[in-house]
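note to self: dont lose this again. the chain is below, predicted strucutre after it. 198 aa total, dont forget to put it in the shared folder this time
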Amino acid sequence: MSYPVNLSGACPPKVSRLLMLARVFFGMIYVGIPHGFCLMFRGIATAFLSFLAFWAILFTGKYPKKFFDFNVGTTRWGIGVMSYMLFLTDVYPPFTGKESGFPITYTVDYPESLSRLMLIVRTLFGIIYVGIPHGFILYFRMIAMAVISFISFWAILFTGKFPEKMWGFILNTLKWVSRVGAYMGNMTDVYPPFTGKE
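---
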C-alpha cells in the first residue's frame, strides 16, 4: 500500500547547460521574484485556511475539500519552483497549484475522515514525536542534498546529464519533507515513513 502523499517524476535524459547557468545567475530574477511574490500571498491564504481546517476537523472529523485542494496546490506550486531551481527539470514551473502536466507531480489522497484525537496529539506533541526524529535525520539529509546539488551542477555542466542516483536522492528528500509537512498540516493521519522512497 502506497503512502497517501506522493512526489514523483523521471530523471530527464538531458539537462540544458544554458538553462542551468541561467538559473544559477538569473534564477532569482525570473523565477524567485515572480513566483515568490505570488507564493507569499498564496502562503498567507494557505495559513488562514489551515487554521479554519483545524477547527473543521475538530468539530466534524473532515478537512473541507476546497481548503484541502487549495493547500495541496500551494505545496505543489512550491515544489515545482524548487524542482526547477534544483535542476530536476528544465520545464519552467507553472503559476498555478493545479495539476498541469509538470514533470514533477505532487499528490495527496483526500481523506474521507480524520481522527480528532490525532489532530490534538499532533498539535500538542507533534514537535516531539514527528519534528525531532524526522527533523534530526532531515537536517543531515539536507546537508547531503546541498553537497549533491553542487556536485550535480558540475556533472551537468560537463556532461549535460544529471546523474540518476543524485537526481533520485534530491527528489526523495523533497518527498520526505513534503510527507512530514502534509502530516503536520493535518492532511493525513498516516505517520510519515523515515524514507523518501515508496
